[in-house]
Automatic annotation (TrEMBL):
Taxonomic path: Bacteria, Bacillati, Bacillota, Bacilli, Lactobacillales
PROSITE patterns named in the record: ADH_ZINC (PS00059)
Record-level Gene Ontology MF annotations: oxidoreductase activity; zinc ion binding
Name of the protein this chain belongs to: Galactitol-1-phosphate 5-dehydrogenase
PANTHER family associated with the record: L-THREONINE 3-DEHYDROGENASE
Coiled coil: none
Organism: Vagococcus allomyrinae
Superkingdom of origin: Bacteria
Amino acid sequence: MKSLRLYGKEDLRYEEADKPQLEKENDVIIKVKAVGICGSDLSRYKKLGPYVEGMVWGHEFSGEVVEVGPKVSHVKLGDRVAGAPCFTCEDLAVPEVCYYCQKAEFARCENLTVIGARHGGAYAEFIRLPEKNCVQIPDNVDYESAAMIEPSAVVVHGYYHTNITAGDTVVIVGCGNMGLLSVKFAQIFGATTIIAVDIAEDALTMAKATGATHVINSAKENALEAIDTLTGGLMADIVVEAAGSPITSAQVFAYAKKGGGVVFLGIPYADVMVERFYFEKIVRSELTVWGAWNCVSAPFPGKEWLTIMSLLKNRQLELKSMITHRLSLEQGPEIFETVSHKKPEDNFGKIMFFPEK
């Protein structure tokens, strides 16, 4: 089958791979219809390299069920599904189920891994998953939107940690795909003031189109002063760090109001040095800080997935407008190289591959 395989940093190859076969009685083979690039894919491509050399990559996808194991009972041939990409203790050959899986806190599993890391991923024509990882797509939800349920679930998982309330003011730092999804879900959770912060004008334009009520270019103005002005000195109820920058990961503590909180979605991949001014905000403002990891909860894969699917089905959530590039797998190595060395004038939203293209 056609696939994208990661061999090393900036070494992504379009080549043939073995089509996955049924191995366990609850396995499902899915024909991949749409699969998106995640920000973590870009970091692994440019900075970290693969977990396993030559692994078929990718984890944000949707597709059609084409084979099922003999013990599969909840999905059938022809079903349209989104794939929850996480494997926990139940799926892995571990001698003992970890403490967190015993508590059904699957995002905290000691052995948590995702497809494309140590198991074949979705940048391919076909993928194998356990039946429980398959979330059925309603007839009125298209494959492109369904492929974006996973990153949406990451954002919702983060918001579920917080105490966000209708009428809140939310500041979102970083307007890449995770930041734009954070804007969308801040609206859904009822925030009335949504302030987006970034250093790129095109990203801020997309944030405004997505639903941000105010945008701040922190390369051109002092974000702290601008937020202070916009909120009448109160600052934000909730701050979302979605940039994954060592700089903004320290600054966000100053953007929250007293008694507010900060939720971290971004991963800096570097040391975060917090100046006294910012650190003291945690103490003096009595902030709550939430770390949010992954996209699953209990019952697996969690209410995040069911919530997003329901929002899509009822047309309360629109995701396709975030897609700026629709490509074949063959174009994968080129687009990863381009995005990793993008110019300031380049505009990349969600990039979606179509293995059949």
